[in-house]
Design brief:
Elements (H helix, E strand, L loop, with lengths): L1 E3 L4 E2 H9 L5 H8 L9 H10 L1 H4 L8
């Protein structure tokens, strides 16, 4: 399924980039070009980031 129609970016490409270390919308914009056009893909892209098991496994930094 296409996530970003402006740049032809698929959900598979976004998930792969997340698995390879992308952890924010700006990372995905830089790596893939997602959300660099009209912006209608931002919501779904952020949803993919939140739902990715790889990111959920990263522990939050503890306050000093």
């Amino acid at each position: 399924m296409y996530v970003c129609v402006c740049n032809g970016i698929t959900e598979r490409q976004v998930r792969h980039a997340i698995e390879q270390g992308a952890s924010s919308l700006s990372d995905l914009t830089e790596q893939l070009g997602v959300a660099a056009g009209c912006g209608s893909c931002v919501g779904f892209t952020e949803e993919l980031l939140r739902s990715c098991p790889t990111l959920q496994a990263i522990p939050l930094a503890r306050a000093a």
